[in-house]
Every structure is written in structure tokens, then in C-alpha cells.
Amino acid sequence: MKATHLARPLSFIVLALLTTFCTAAPPAQPTAGPADEVIEIRLMHQFTEGSQTQPILAEYTEKYMQAHPNVKVTWDWAGWEQFDQKMQARIEAGDPPDAVFNSSPLIAVYARQGLLQPIDSALKEQNYEGDAVWADTFLSGLLQQAFVQDASTGPGYYAVPVDMHISGLIYDKDMFARMNLQPPQTWADVVDLAEKFQAAGIIPFAQDGGYTPYNFRAFMYLAIRIGGETAFYDTCLHKDGFPWAGNPDWLKAAQEFQILTTKYFQPGFLGSQWPAAQTEWANGKMAMMIIPTWLPSEMLGTNVDAMKIGFVRFPAYPGGKGDQTATELKFNGFGVLKEARQPQATLDFLKYLSSRQFQEVHSAQGLVPSPIEGVALPAQLSDVTAMLADHPKMIPMMDGIEGDAPEWMANVAEPLIGELAAGTMAPEAFIAELQAQSDAFYAKP
Fold this sequence. Notes:
This protein is α/β, with parallel strands linked by helices. It folds into two domains: 3-165 and 330-382, D-Maltodextrin-Binding Protein, domain 2 (3-Layer(aba) Sandwich); 167-328 and 399-443, Periplasmic binding protein-like II (D-Maltodextrin-Binding Protein, domain 2), CATH 3.40.190. It contains 18 helices and eleven strands. The chain has helices spanning 13-17, 54-67, 83-92, 104-112, 120-123, 173-178, 187-199, 212-227, 229-236, 248-264, 276-282, 295-298, 343-353, 356-366, 383-387, 401-404, 406-422, 427-443; strands spanning 39-45, 71-77, 99-103, 147-148, 156-157, 160-172, 203-205, 286-292, 309-312, 327-336, 394-396. Strands 1, 2, 3, 6, 7, 8, 9, 10 and 11 form a nine-stranded mixed β-sheet that branches. Strands 4-5 form a two-stranded antiparallel ribbon. A hairpin with a 7-residue loop joins strand 4 (147-148) and strand 5. The two termini are 41 Å apart.
């Protein structure tokens, strides 16, 4: 397989999303091994048992083991809050999992830390169905986010995507229809809608601000629309010639963000712990959310299951310097640990999790967009097809900051953005402090 097969442009992802749902095929039959040779594959996941799509994964793991009687797959449903600590503790105790599940930005972090092994050779093999090269079964360009140029063991592919997500603005279609409203296309539309919802006694935006990356995302989208996605990335990474202070674009983004959070987010949103605000939105008490496509899967078993969900990309900011179509794209997937005891068997199982037969069920029942060519979007997210029809510019999650500057984002940007969001820090003071703290952070050896 040529390397170019692994590096196709992200803009072509829409071609694979304009598909129809098809019936799952029965599992492929494995080559039987010796009856007394049991291979144990141990996986660590950010889900807790019973949450989100975990039951689907558990069900299809059982199906896999029935079809592969010499393989035992065990899961550590670790939960996301303490995931990194638990993973590191297992590694230090000499009991590492064979593979770990996380988002593409954090997979890149693990590769840079030397925790993962490259899987380039496996991607050149046949897929689980045996009808295509494995790498070529993924949506065009998406797999490139698994390529880590500066990994500690060298450039390569370090993850198997099993789902993918796109960010935008989500809303309740029935609520909009009752009020004879249209989804926003520009930032002026957002403000107009927010005023109309407030006049009707409805909170315009729901936000679980206790999860601070969500606040960063809202600020980031305004910043990349106003000042540009490349300039924002370079400023966050403290590159020469890209300061926070003195740039009117970043000040304008801070001003617009503070208006949004202090006027149109629900009161006390910074103390709202996931999924409280999402639940309130699902119960019809708030109108919109700025969030990726993972919301329906996170809210399985609630009112969301029966809702008519609308989804549009983050609205344009007329006159802004950024690509006004720029939209976040990421995957969640599995990285195989360098210390894995069963790397080959693990990769065979990951082929199964990226097979059409599993992915069609995972997408339709779990409401999770698939990273695999030919697998339809979940019905609840059908609007994503129209959202991608004009081939928007696809950018990494958090504009790449989450993967390339995670400590700066967590320790400098997010706390300051929280103060800006609360209204306790003026936009001008925010920009000045962001510059000062960034200077100090990047000055550290």
C-alpha cells in the first residue's frame, strides 16, 4: 500500500458520509488455534460499565469470543476522570493493558511519551472482512490524525479509530419550529436567536462549564472565525510573531465570548457538571449547545432518543480572517501499548471493532458516527450530511491545541477562560494575563 493512501485530504470525508445504512453481516470465521491455547487480550477504556455504548462493546466482544474460542478479551472500564492515573499505575505495576482507548489528540500525547507502538505494518494488511487493505477502509483523511510525526519511537500511525466526531451547534428542531425560527448561519443570527429565546423565557445556551475544555471550545471557535485557525494555533503555541497582547482579533474574540457566556449561558454554568446541562437541554429547558456529535450517544436512554436533533457548523463571523467553514474533526480509538503482551492478537480484535459488521450496529444503536467508509450516519445526526456537503475545512479537535499543547491549555488557558466566562475578568485584562502567563509557561525549561 502506498503512503498516499494514508494521507488523503480531510475534505473528502463527505463522500463517505453520503451513504445508506445496510444490514450487518455475520462475523467472519477465524482460523482455529489449538484448543488448549488461550490468548488473553486486555483492553482499558474510558467508559464506566453500563455507560454510553459500553453495553454494545461488551455484547460484541462476547460475539467475537464465541467466533474465536481460543481468545479471551477482558475489559477494564476505567472511567475518564482517573483514566491516565490508572493506566500509568498499571504500567508501573508491570500489569499493562494491551491497548487503551482515548481521543486522537491524547493518543498523540501517549505516542510522544513512548507508551505506544506504531501499527503501520498492520494497517497494510487486509481488513477483518478480508476484502480491502485495512487502512483504506477508514474515511478519507481521518486516519492521518493517527500519524504522529514526533512520536518517541519515530514517525508512524499509533491508533485504530473506532468512532469519529465533528463539532458544531446542536439544537431541538421541534423547539425551533414552534417558534418559527431558523438555525443560525452567522454570529449575528446567534445573538438574534438568543434574544428571542430569552424573550420567550427560554435559556439560549446550555453549557456544562464544569468541564473546562467545553469553555475553551466556545472561545476557540470565536477566535478562529475572527483571527484565523492557523494564527490561533501559532499564538497558543507561543510562536514568534504571534502574541496575544496587541492583537485586536483576540481581544474581539474575548469580548464576544464574554457577552455570550454572561448573557446567554444558563446561570451558574461554570459549576454545572457533565451531563447536567445536557440533560436540561434534552428536557427542553434550554435551546442550543456548542458541542460535538458525541452528545446523542452520551444521552442514550433519555429524551434525546426521540428528539429531532438539528446540527449546523459553528456560525460564520462576517469579516473574520479565518476560514468560516473550519470544523473540528477527531476520532476516538485504541493505541496498542509498547509493553503489550499480545500485540498481534490485539490488532486482530481491533480490526473486528473497525469492521463494517460491528460499526453499522455501533453507529445505528449507539448513535456514534463511524470512521469507516460506507457506514451511514446515525439517524439522529443526519443533518451532518448537509453540514459537510460543501466540503468545509476540517481541522483537528481544539485546532490541534489539545494534542500539541495540552499542559498550556489545562494550566494556563482554561483557568483564565473560566474567569473571562464568569465576567470576573475584563477582556482586556484577560488578554494581558494570558500573554503574561503564556510567557512564563513557555519560558520554563
